[in-house]
Amino acid sequence: MPEQAARRAAIVEYEHVSKSYATAKLRGSSPDAVNDLSLTVPAGKICVLVGPSGCGKTTSLKMVNRLIEPTSGRILIDGVDTATRDVNELRRGIGYVIQQVGLFPHQTIGQNVVTVPRLLGWSKDRQQERADELLNLVGLDAARYRNRYPSQLSGGERQRVGVARALAADPPIMLMDEPFGAVDPIVRERLQNEFLRLQEELAKTILFVTHDIDEAIKMGDLVAVMEVGGRLAQFAPPAEILASPASEFVARFVGADRGLKRLSLSRVGDLELQPATTARVHEDAAAARRRTIADPFAYLLLVDDKNRPLGWIGQDEIPTDGRLTESMAQSMSPLMNRRTTLKDALSMLLDADVQAGIVVDRRGAVLGLVTANVIAERMRETAGDGRFVQHVSEVEMAAGASGGVSGESGAAADAAAAP
Amino acid sequence: MIDWVWIADHLDVLAFRTLQHLYLTAIAVVIGFAISFVLSVWSIRRRAVYPPITALAGVLYTIPSLALFAALIPVTGLRSLVTAEFPLVAYTLLIFIRNMVSGFDTVPRDVLEAADGMGYTPARRLWFVELPLALPLVMAGIRLATVSTIGLVTITGILGDSLGGLGFFIFEAYRHSFLTETLVGAVPLLLLAVAADVILVRLERRLTPWSRPVPSSEGPPIAIVGT
Questions:
Q1: Residue A387 has pLDDT above 80, yes or no
Q2: Chain A residues within an 8 Å CB radius of B112
Q3: Which of A65, A259, A358, B155 is the residue whose CA sits 20 to 30 A from B107?
Q4: B136 lies within 8 A of chain A by CB
């Protein structure tokens, strides 16, 4: 149905949107929750709003479904000003997920999931069918869960139900306010991955709020970094935010380890692979030895007859006559494929006793080599102009004593790594 | 000691007075509930009106019923249902409003935010989200108000034979110093109060299946409500 496909995603535009509170002015604090925000979220993309607390990210989100009305400016969905639409009708067309989930405790999971279809007046049969479909979609066995009450579910299960509920009427837009903030790091990681996989199929336009820069980088097609006072500090794809932060604030917020964070955004397939000098088992040793002498790497990669790596033979270890045998291979490199992130690749190289990693294709055949130098080179090429690098190290030194700006996200990353 | 023959002769009167008692109680509870519901919803939407409303309900609660009857008789008449019901309704207000507002306060904020975010209209949110979740405390208010009104209906017997419910027997027995008739008024009254409480507790359990202690998530799914 082309009609339905067209409904799957929508463009969300902020046009000079501001929100100020008169009471804040009286208290002497900044009256601006959001200050002249203009940005466009393309259809089908995840846009993450990230920033420290008080930066107006949640306010910006809630202005889309008009839980908060802007003081000035407009928000357009597919070109239509949201202020001109009936507020309840608008909200029923936008999925909404919050940190505390907000499931209705007096309704079963099945009833909770089809809240919006019920408001839209779907038939009972269609509601039940949709509830089961959605529960299975988010990885909960419908037969087991549909008649339970929210109090009988774990935090992670409840959050899945929250996502299912937001998807119930197949809205083109989803608003997610720290949706994975209330669950433990292991569950959070799993929910994030599952959600990204789901989004590949659903392709909704998603606005996602978090205070965690790592989550922003992982989840976002686009990241909007906001600073206190409700100003947009930078709006760009995650790789660009990390490579060339637009201001000192952004550089500080993404943290001094932004170089390492960038590693997880690139994959081995992005690199130019080094050629490997290979030889097959049972090949003539003398010929192989001659080839290796010409190679500055000084090692020969022994492969089987399907070009799959067996191990390295040092230049000096190659016999001067006879044939190569499998037992000559002494050490092996870590194996990686094109989808391996540079972060994982570098980690494997640091752990290995050989300085090159072997990249193989799906059938395990050798494609080429990756070295730490090649990875470092790639990082340097894609880095920005380095304007804010000096500031970062100064700030980080100061932050070592006081906790610092990136403390929150750093702590979350530590916790995630702990188990 | 107890005149069983008298009781046997008056069973039809007893039945009539019991029904009258329930009728007078029901009127007071229903009207009191309706007024309190409006005032409670107003209080949770506009917090500033809550203290004056409870203060007023508190003052009404402290006025003795006999004084209230005396004040009302010139206006609404001696044998009038309005005169009888006015104090009964007035006494339920404080109980109802306190419990309703406390009940609405127990509704979690995130639940309300989710409801708003999904496009509930205010009326629909009140009826399908707030009221069900406030129900345990609202029901506690209904129980308290019902039981105390069952007791208070007795005193309307002072307004004349056409009112008073089971209180009719007590006033008459007082005039004749007839113990049997006192018991015919008092014992059914007691049973009525206890029965009303038990029935309302059961009703509350039926209406709030989600708040019952449930087997762990490993147990079988709960499919049947009210077993």
A1: no
A2: 102
A3: A65
A4: no
Judge residue B102's burial from the number of C-beta atoms within 10 Å of its C-beta, 0-12 exposed, 13-18 middle, 19 or more buried. middle
- Please choose, from the candidates A173, A160, A167, the residue with its C-alpha nearest in 3D space to the C-alpha of residue A207: A173
Beta-bridge partners for A74: A15
Tokens of B141: 């208010």
**Looking at residue A182, what is its pLDDT?**
83
Every domain of chain A with CATH number 3.10.580.10 lies at 269-375
- Examine the predicted complex and report whether its ipTM is higher than 0.90: no
> Would the pLDDT of A6 be above 60?
no
Q: Does B9 touch chain A (CB under 8 A)?
A: no
pLDDT tens-digit series, residues A127-154:
999 999 999 999 999 999 999 999 999 9
**Which pTM was predicted?**
0.76
* Window from A53-57, A206-210, A255-259 with minimum mean pLDDT: A255-259
- Yes or no, beta carbons of B217 and A92 under 8 Å apart: no
Question: Nearest C-alpha of chain B: how many angstroms from A48?
Answer: 19
For residue B219, is it within any domain? Answer: no
Amino acid at B26: A
Reported as a single tens digit per residue, the pLDDT across A168-208 is: 999 999 999 999 988 888 989 889 999 999 999 899 999 99
Give me the residue from A67, A145, A154 closest to B117, CB to CB: A67
Domain over A2-256 is classified CATH 3.40.50.300: yes
Q: Does B226 touch chain A (CB under 8 A)?
A: no
Using an 8 Å Cβ cutoff, are A399 and A406 in contact?
yes
Asked whether residue B189 is domain-assigned, the answer is yes
The total number of structural domains in chain B stands at: 1
Helices (H), B46-157: 50-62, 65-76, 81-105, 109-117, 122-125, 131-153
Whether B110 has its CB under 8 Å from any CB of chain A: the answer is yes
In chain A, which segments carry CATH 3.40.50.300? Answer: 2-256
Closest CA to A275 of A249, A254, A294, A256: A294
Cβ of residue A91 closer than 8 Å to a chain B Cβ = yes
**Nearest-neighbour CA in chain B from A88: distance (Å):** 4
Q: Is B218 on the interface with A (CB under 8 A)?
A: no
Residue B184 placed within a domain: yes
Which residues, given as ranges, of chain B have pLDDT below 70?
212-227
pLDDT of residue A390: 44
Range of the domain at B39: 18-208
Residue A252 has pLDDT above 50, yes or no: yes
Does CATH number 3.10.580.10 belong to domain A269-375? yes
Secondary structure of residue B112 in the 3-state scheme: helix
Domain presence at residue B102: yes
For chains A and B, what is the number of CB pairs under 8 angstroms? 85
Q: How confident is the model at residue A384 (pLDDT cuts 50, 70, 90)?
A: low
CATH, residue B153: 1.10.3720.10
Residue in A67, A90, A148 nearest the CB of B221: A148
Query: What's residue A9's pLDDT?
Result: 81
**Separation in Å, CA A136 to CA A148, A170, B77:** 15, 15, 68
A176/B contact by beta carbon, under 8 A: no
**Residue A270: what pLDDT?**
87
Q: What local confidence, expressed as pLDDT, does residue A385 receive? A: 58
